[in-house]
Every structure is written in structure tokens, then in C-alpha cells.
């Protein structure tokens, strides 16, 4: 897999700058940066100097020194203006992330160094977008909204992890580690895909959303296939041959899904998919063959095996706008006391620490909740799915509607098969008659040769029987092969005929044919209770997200720089404590929300235990319902094929019938000629016999109903009757083989 062609990466366009009343030379160098690492360095320096400036001069929104700042919004191309220096910082930060994404995507990643550089660029891009999301308002423009920035972060982290995966495969790391790295790529892309599927995000992105979504969805299945491929390799190393088969089969299934989603993707993607298909397909076929013929291990169900947990080995590299090693010397150092700036930075760190502590608790609880819900496999929307049984599914309605305008469907099929059966019977009768004629002729020939010895054919003997026999064998072989096909065709017709009659009938009968669940009042109560608790789980999730968002926004807007300038240095700690108390109420609400999770999950566990039996019954009914629908649809789709094959069979047998009829005529003529030829041989043999001589009295002459006693009147010499005396070897011949008058002897 280390030689697999590389997948394309997503990168972001840079924003274009407009009006900002700042030094023109500085402004130009900051917004027209080269698309290389030097451009990233320039943006970081400019960002740092803007940070130093805004900490000293009141250029924020609504402040005395605020000036208009204009930048172009990426997705719409519209100019957006705010009188806030933080808007300038936010746009520069966005461009920093976009430029890193562009540089990461530009490299072909064919070398180890290229993979490392791309991975670093994507992590830097994620860091820029994370800092922008966590430290700036989200209302400046659409391309810097919370949803878009979160999407960008997950895309960049996913692509960084993807580079790391390529490097791991190149280094031939252990299969289990490669599987975990690949699984984490899937996790990052799943988060990005959820954002892309969000209707609000889709409306913000515009036409680019579809392209990104297609690529990300394809990558999800592709890297899931890579993960299961390496899990199969690990099973192979552990000699777990049954597990190896199911992992390789799962990898093949997921890769096929990726191939379906890859339509329209560039040739590099197609090459990667073809290469991976060769690897996985070969692995699966070999593993299945070995297990079927050598190891005979039971192949477990995939869901019984432990899921592959991702290993996040990349992170958003943090942005520090005050790092002198990056920003260079502070050109505004003399404008504002540095102490105020340092105190503001310390307070920002206190806020960041508070946010990190709260987020650590939230993420821990969310992880437990997600794992619990995944293990339960409970979806509030489809926990009972009873509504679907009240309607005929659209795919079935479509087939019923199609048959309603073709009322003769069933009759036409039956008639077509009846005609085919008739022609089939006629051909079989003709071939049987030919075979009987040939067998009868062969029997007569055998009798003659037993009496006379093997007689070589005399000149003019009929040659046609051999050709007739050869053609008859050929036709019998064709008939035998077609007979099997004909039987299969009748079996298929009988299989689908009832379903076609059902689909052609009233819709009420179709609906009645579909299975429906039968729930008792207790079952319904269990369902209602489960749905109620699931709603509580969702309510808890929503409240948690809302409180987290409020906390982030509150921290974002919390700027005490003005207070810090007028506060004595010795009072800074006390001021921090007073200012941080404003977050206590939100923290209490969050703690209550997190504490409630344990009780909610306990109630859900109890409800799920009671739901188990109902769930099993509903699952069985749903399976039967789906199977019935699929069977009816398959019968409809088989109709045209049955009609086509029936017509082909009819055409085949009509042609064979004509040939068999001609062959029958030839067989009759050839048999008659053969019979005449045998009579000629007999007559010639009789003529060769010497004249009768007086002999001693002979025993009685036996000849099929004719008995001559010696000395009696019947013992008259045959010559006196005008008939030749029979030689010894001809006396047992049946009369139909005797020539001329001898065949007319009286019984």
C-alpha cells in the first residue's frame, strides 16, 4: 500500500483586502504575500504587530480610533466592512490558515520529506483556524462563522492525519497502528462531513459544498477500507484466519462504496482506487480460499469484533501572536505601557485555562455518551419505524403503476410459455421418432449380420443413415441443453407469476401482502417510554452545546484592557478573580448538565432492557417487510427478461422443429432404402446356393408357423412349389427379411 497513488487534498482561497487606513507599504506587503513559506512568515509578523497595535490604541468596534476595514468574503465575493481592527486581525489569520492549506495541498507527497512538510502545513492551518474560532467574533463574515471554521479545522486535521498515514505505510509500521491511524482519518472526515451535510453550512458554502462533500464521503469509505485491510493483516499475523476473512471482506465492501462515490473525481483518485482494489481484492480472495480449503475457521460477524479506535497523532499547532521570534520587535512598544499588555495576556490565559478545564469535562462526558449510544444503536427517529408499515413504499407503487397500464402482463407471459411448451413437445416427438427409426434399422441390420456374417455393403448401398444419425445426435444434444434452460425458464416463471398477479391487482391486496408488526399495549408503552428517554438524551446534548457556545461567546467578548491600564499591578490578581466570577453561573449550569448524564443513561439502560424483545420482533418484521418488497420488485424486473427469453426459446425451437421435420423425412427415406438394400443382399445370397440334392430324410422343417413332416404331403420339395429350397443358415430368418416369394409362404 506504500506505493498507492496519493489522494487530492482540499485547500482554501485567500481573502482579498480592501480599505484600511494603515501605512500603505505595510498594508501592501501583508495582503499581497507570495504563495510560499515566506508569505506565511509575513502574515504572522503582520498579525503580531496588529495585536500590539490594538492593545495600545482604541481601534476596536465603537472605540474612538476605529477606522473602516474592508475585506472580500470568500464564498460570495462581496466586500464586507467593519470599523474594528480585530476584523483586520481575523482576516489575516484566516489567510494564514488558507495559505498553509494551499501549501500543504500543493506538494505531491511522493517523498518522506514532502509528507512531513504537508502534514506540518495542515496542522498549522488547523491552528490558525482554531485560534480564529476561539478568539474572535464569528459575526464578521460568513467565511469566518463558527460552523465554517470548525469544518476547516476538521478538514485540515484529517488531511494532516492522512499525510501521517501515508508516512506510516511507507515506513511499514505495525498493521494495528496503521489501522488506528487510518480510523482517525475517518473520524476527522466524518466530523467534516457532518458539517457539510448541515443545511446551514451548505447554504453558506454555496456550490463548493457539493464538491467537498463528494470528496470527503469518498475518503471516509476509502480510509475505512484501509483500516480494515490492516486489521485483516493483523489477524493474519495472529493466525486468526476467520477474522482475517471478515476484515478483508469489509475492506472490499467499503472500497466498492468509495468507488461508487468517486465518479467524476480526477484520474489520480481513480488510479488510487484501482491500485487499492488490486491489493484488497487479492488479499480477500487468497484469505477466503485458504480458509475454505485449509483452515476452516468460522468467520465471525463484523459487529462482534472490537471496533478500531482512532489514534489522533496530529494536532492544531497553536498561534501565538505575541511570540517575538515570529512577530519580530514590537514597533508600537512606546505607545502603551507594556505592563497593561502583559496583564491582558495573562488574563487571556486565565480565560483560556477556564475554557480548557470546562471543555475537558464536556469532552470526557461526550465521549462516554457517544460510546454508550453507539453500543445501544438507538436512533430516536427510527426506534420503532412503525409509520412505514402504513404505506406502500414508493418503489413498489412505481411498479404497481407500471403494471396498471399493462393489464395483459400475466396473460402474455403465460401464453408465451404455453407456446414455447408446445413447440418444445413437437421437437421432442420428431426427434424421438427419428431415433426409433434409426434403432429399428440398426436392429434389422444386426439380425441380418448375425445370420449371414458381416456383409460388406454392396455397390449402391444407401449412405444416408450415417449422416442422419450424426445430425440426429447433434439435434438431441441441442435439445437436451435447451431442455434444461426451458425447465429453468418455467421454474422462474412459476416463481414470479404469483407476485406479478399481486402487483397487477388492487393496492389493498399489495398492502395486505406486506408484513406488519403486531404490538400489545405493553409493547407500545415500552416504546413510548424509550422514545421519551431518548428525547431527554437529545435535550441534554442540546443544552450542553448551548451552554458551551454561551461560554465561548462570553469569553470572546470579555476584554478588560481598559480596566488593566488604570489598575495597579499589585491589584491585578484580585481584578482577575473578580472578572472570572462572571462565569460561575454558566459553570454551575454545565456541572448540573454533566451530572445528570449518569441518571439519564441508567434510565435509558433499563428502558433498553425492556425494549429488547420488542426490538427483536420489530427487526424480524422489518426484515420480512424488506424481503417481501425486494421480492416483488425483483419479480417485476424479471418480467421483461422472462418474455425476452421465452421469445428466444420459441424462436430456437421453431427453427429446430423445422430442421427436425426435414431430418425425419430423410430418416424415413434412408430407412426404406436400407431395408431394400438388405433384401437385395438376401436375394444375392440365395442365388449363390447350389441346387438341392437328394438327401436322407430331414428332421421337421421349422419356419415361423410352417412345419413340414418328412414323408408327408407338406414335405414336398420347395422347388416343386416353384420356390428355391432354403439353405440351413436361412431357415430361421423372419419372413419380412426373406426375398420375393419366400416372404409370402403361408403360415
UniProtKB/TrEMBL annotation:
Domain BRO1: 27-369
Main location: cytoplasm
Keyword Coiled coil part of the UniProt annotation: yes
Region ranges (Disordered): 675-747
Single GO BP term: protein transport to vacuole involved in ubiquitin-dependent protein catabolic process via the multivesicular body sorting pathway
Cited InterPro entries: ALIX_V_dom, BRO1_dom, BRO1_sf
Keywords noted in UniProt: Coiled coil, Cytoplasm, Endosome
Coiled coil spans: 424-454, 530-557
GO cellular-component term (any): endosome
Bias (Low complexity) ranges: 732-747
Compositional bias segments (type: Pro residues): 689-700
Listed name of the protein: PTN23 phosphatase
Originating species: Furnarius figulus
